[in-house]
Amino acid sequence: MNRESLKIEFKREYTEEIKKTVIAFANTDGGEIRIGVDDDGTVVGVADVDSVMLQVTNSVRDSIKPDVTMFLLCESREVEGKPIIIVDVQRGTARPYYLAGKGVRPEGVFIRQGASTVPATESAILKMIRETSGDSYETARSLIQELTFRSAERAFREEKIRFGAEQKRTLGLIGEDGAFSNLALLLSDQCLHTVRLAVFEGASKRVFKDRAEFSGSLLQQLEEIYDSLDRINRTRAEFSGLKRIDIRDYPPEALREALLNAIVHRDYSYSASTLVSVFDDRIEFVSLGGLPKGIGYDDMMLGVSVLRNARLAEIFYRLRLIEAFGTGMPKIMECYRGYEAQPEIQLSDNAFKITLPNVNFRSNRTTGEDALPDAETRVLKYMTGRSAASRKEIESALGLSQSSAIRVLNGLVEKKLVQKTGRGKSTAYSVVE
């Protein structure tokens, strides 16, 4: 007979190791297991063909996940006058296949290397998941399958929403292969992603006052982080005549929306933590993942919503944590209407940062009634002596974010200190003589 190779494996008799070989063939390029053939290719035959075939099919059905039986054909064949069993395994479409008792880990996932069956590396497992699940992080199978949902169950129970096995399938926590998805991992008590909160003294990161890291289900993290920010969000009292007016450092709804944005819209294919940094004059939320493809800054500010984590957002909507898609940023800006300090948005290809200013913060800077804010003064000084400058030139020269540059330039135009000419990419600004 042929020698053992990438696609051929000999087994003198049935052993439990056959399951690993089935998994390896299904995860690689398919192959044949020939039971009743010695390692050197000598045909020894099978004494009880029906019994061994039943052992093989039952073992594969009960011990391998996802179901690989549709890619397996088990039949008997006579070779050199002796009966052997051929287990023909095709490459599966729901890779990685794994031992049910081991999970989607190297000790449970196998591939073929030459004529050997070996454990798959974690990078090989992730590659198989991407190939069969597409680009969606949410729908891909979780590497961790031993998940519990105490926090999620409590959240659904409070909203009087069922959260059984059928609902988990409908919501996308359980895939068609019966395995938990990454969406399930995000809502589970075993969620690997965290949020780090740091409180600094003053307006720089030189001196720490406090720090904390939040883990567990995203639903639990959201609740705990908001409670911490609410305690930090002090109230300043002013009097208008006989009436007392209480003003929070940060509009609570703006805090809530910024936190939801950081958790719901971040890119969870990255492992780093979401960061929340509290300073005397501001709070910064930094989450991984820029804007989804096809969406620009102006689109986002208008309320255009393209969801990176559509299923996660849908669950937050069902739990009434999100009122409507695409309203977060407009709500935040509305909360700061009438205040001098405005929220700032900074974007890169791989990160999103929103800064909420402390509306009660008073700097030591004294200004006359007609004095300009620092940012406007800096822009005017830069533009003085220049015939014109684009917004991007001003951003780059002064280190301003896009949102800050837009706000400052619009303010200067309204004060008739700067004039705006052109449209679109040809827009330019110049000092009014």
Question: Describe it for me?
Answer:
- The chain is α+β, with helices and mostly antiparallel strands and 433 residues long.
- It folds into three domains: 8-133, Schlafen, AAA domain (Methyltransferase, Cobalt-precorrin-4 Transmethylase, Domain 2, 2-Layer Sandwich), CATH 3.30.950.30; 195-357, Heat Shock Protein 90, CATH 3.30.565; 374-431, Arc Repressor Mutant, subunit A, CATH 1.10.10.
- It is built from 14 helices and 18 strands.
- It has helices at residues 17-27, 49-63, 122-133, 150-158, 165-171, 182-187, 218-232, 252-264, 297-301, 310-318, 328-335, 374-383, 391-398, 402-414, and strands spanning 8-11, 31-35, 64-65, 72-79, 82-89, 98-99, 110-113, 116-119, 195-200, 208-214, 235-240, 243-248, 274-278, 282-288, 344-347, 351-357, 418-421, 428-431.
- The strands form six sheets. Strands 10-9-13-14-16-15 form a six-stranded mixed sheet. Strands 1-2-5-4 form a four-stranded mixed sheet.
- Strand 13 and strand 14 form a beta hairpin.
- Helix 7 (218-232) packs antiparallel against helix 8 (252-264) and helix 13 (391-398) crosses helix 14 (402-414).
- The radius of gyration is 31 Å and the shape is elongated.
